[in-house]
Design a protein that fits this description.
heterodimer; A: alpha/beta; two-stranded parallel ribbon; 17% helix; B: mainly alpha; Cytochrome-c3 Hydrogenase, chain B; three-stranded antiparallel sheet; 18 helices; globular
């Protein structure tokens, strides 16, 4: 694999005016792009002889609504009693995120053997991003998936239908405010001889609370 | 005389069709018997694995990975575990890496054998299915010996593997249906360790592959059904996001085991077979050759593992649980065990993408962590998803019967496409 730092330098040099920021972490290059520059940057990454990202590996939607919010406060909870019965109130009162959503693209260059990750942050009020199907045809289904699960609209997509969820499904299930057990459950009604959708009867509960540890206990090399 | 009113006909292929390889609903538009348009409807097996993972500590999701592509179980685990290790910044002991590579390759055999059996069945070679399942049985026994489960192993863990290879290969026991004499014959190659059994398998296997090839490779009917069917050019294969045997069948020598080596692949000797025409027949040849190469890799791993005993799990008890013996003697170990089993471990803030050369192509796991004990977002990049997306392009202009041949040459499994 080619050196990721060299790639990072090249990207910053060639595309400086069109990218927001770039960072290298654990030998992976992540580049933040503004929505308006996405197609531009993608074209350059595909066609520039230095990059030649000829393969789009993946398109992934991300919802940052609950990012960094834990279900169980580690600092104060133990002082007031070891209470595991946590509720989701912290999640429900999640503050509005400016850039709640993101579309993340993973690219691979077969000729140069390097990878890059593009990220476009999107605001909830305008969940639209230009489609890259015209640049990499493989984006077709990946974008349909991100649309289905997160409701991100890919402008210019030739066939933006739901792909993974049921026919007639309502909502975007991978959003963080969509409950894990869903909204409706289906059953076959023998009297009416059809499948009925009814409000879900499963009561959501947390078995293992989400805990964020920032006390460095996972620093490697310590017993 | 006026021509009769001829129009395109649209019909369903699946989801309840034996050649749909699971639950694919394919809406075919045909003109006579020629395909005009194919629209795959997927998602009938969608279980929201990625969303489920967001509600569980990291280690609980390893078992879900087996259920993605349920014919190459351990490879899925491998991708997931690698992503966690990347974020944690840990490297498993060398012996664990060899065990993983060995089981990855055995999984590749499992996958390709099932593919060959099902592909044969779809095209009309009934006996292939029986032969392939005979070989799969031995490999599934290895799975069982090492993890206790024939399919859904949950054997790989961040930091290594669950336990070392067993010293004794489990044996058949006499029953109402099998006399002592029969059982003794069955147990003949199970007298030694698991490694001895695997070695014995690799001794037998090349002969078996040769016999499949005798049945198929120059078989006139086989060639008529696969040569020049579903051709995809290398440029198009790359653009459509193909990977694995689908890409190599079109003549692109791309294999992550060579190009972006993980674990100990860079220390092993093996070759990457490529096709020429990019049709169903070349993809068949590539997969058969891959089985021979996998067999070769397994033998190298067995040799290494025999000579190099050692730990198979890292010693860091913030991530890997302590032994039962330690737990009963040391307070610290007991606490570690309690914290790991109730809360799990937290990953540092960040994101990682780990990809492996899965039997079907590039299997990638994109993990975002916000510092919690659960993944913030887990995205699984399944190779089959990209391959199936290209189905329309590949079947256009072919006959209805060719749809079956092309579909099964994609080697799709709905567990990983629908996730």
């Amino acid at each position: 694999m080619t050196d990721v730092n060299a790639l990072s330098l090249n990207v910053n040099e060639r595309l400086a005016d069109r990218i927001r920021s770039s960072s290298v972490a654990i030998a992976e290059l992540t580049v933040d792009v503004a929505r308006d520059h996405l197609l531009d940057v993608c074209l350059a990454l595909r066609d520039d002889a230095l990059f030649q990202f000829d393969q789009l590996i993946d398109v992934c939607g991300v919802d940052y609504l609950h990012y960094g919010i834990s279900e169980w406060e580690t600092q104060s909870a133990t002082a007031s009693g070891f209470e595991r019965g946590v509720d989701q109130s912290a999640m429900l009162q999640a503050p509005h995120k400016v850039n709640r959503f993101a579309a993340v693209y993973h690219l691979l260059s077969l000729s140069h053997n390097h990878r890059i990750r593009l990220r476009v942050f999107l605001d909830e009020t305008s969940l639209e991003v230009p489609s890259v199907v015209s640049i990499w045809p493989s984006a077709n289904w990946f974008e349909r998936e991100a649309f289905d699960l997160f409701g991100i609209l890919f402008l210019g997509h030739p066939d933006l239908r739901r792909i993974l969820t049921d026919y007639g499904f309502v909502g975007h299930p991978f959003r963080k405010d969509f409950p894990l057990s869903g909204h409706v459950e289906a059953r076959y009604d023998a009297a009416q001889q059809c499948v009925l959708y009814e409000p879900v009867t499963v009561v959501p509960r947390i078995l293992e609370p989400k805990v964020i540890r920032d006390d460095n206990r996972y620093r490697m090399g310590e017993p | 005389m006026t021509l009769p009113d001829i129009r395109h006909y649209t019909f369903n292929f699946g989801p309840q069709h034996p050649a749909a390889h699971g639950v694919l609903r394919l809406i075919l538009e045909v003109d006579g018997e020629t395909i005009i348009h194919a629209d795959p409807h997927v998602g009938l097996l969608h279980r929201a694995t990625e969303k489920l993972a967001e509600s569980k500590p990291y280690n609980h999701t390893i078992g879900y990975m087996d259920r993605l592509d349920y014919v190459s179980m351990m490879c899925n685990e491998h991708g997931y575990v690698l992503a966690i290790e990347k974020l944690l910044g840990i490297t498993p002991p060398l012996r664990a890496q060899y065990i993983r590579v060995m089981f990855d390759e055995m999984t590749r055999l499992l996958n390709h054998l099932l593919w060959l059996g099902a592909h044969g069945l779809d095209i009309g070679a009934m006996s292939m299915f029986l032969y392939c399942f005979r070989e799969r049985e031995d490999l599934l026994d290895c799975y069982e010996a090492v993890s206790g489960s024939r399919m859904h192993a949950t054997y790989y863990r961040p930091g290594g593997v669950y336990r070392d290879l067993p010293v004794n290969m489990p044996q058949y026991k006499p029953s109402l249906w099998h006399s002592k004499k029969e059982v003794a014959a069955l147990n003949e190659n199970r007298q030694g360790s698991l490694l001895d059994f695997i070695w014995d398998f690799t001794e037998r296997f090349p002969e078996r592959v040769a016999s499949y090839e005798t049945l198929l490779t120059h078989n006139r009917i086989w060639k008529q059904r696969t040569v020049n069917i579903g051709v995809i050019s290398p440029e198009r294969a790359i653009a459509m996001g193909f990977s694995g045997p689908m890409l190599r069948g079109s003549g692109v020598a791309w294999d992550l085991r060579k190009k972006q080596p993980y674990e100990v692949y860079d220390q092993l000797d093996f070759a990457i077979p490529v096709g020429v025409n990019g049709d169903c027949y070349d993809r068949y040849l590539v997969r058969v050759e891959e089985m021979k190469q996998s067999n070769h890799i397994i033998r190298q791993c067995v040799n290494w593992l025999r000579q190099n005993p050692g730990p198979v799990m890292i010693e860091n008890h913030k991530v890997a649980p302590p032994t039962r013996v330690d737990m009963k003697k040391k307070m610290e170990s007991l606490i570690h065990h309690f914290k790991l089993m109730t809360e799990g471990y937290a990953l540092p803030v960040g994101e990682a993408y780990a990809a492996i050369e899965h039997p079907k192509g590039e299997f990638g796991v994109y993990l975002i962590s916000d510092g919690a004990n659960k993944p913030y977002r887990l995205k699984i990049r399944a190779a089959g998803f990209a391959h199936l997306a290209a189905l329309n392009e590949m079947v256009k202009g072919h006959m209805i019967a060719d749809v079956v041949a092309i579909l099964s040459s994609l080697d799709i499994v709905f567990g990983e496409i629908d996730r």
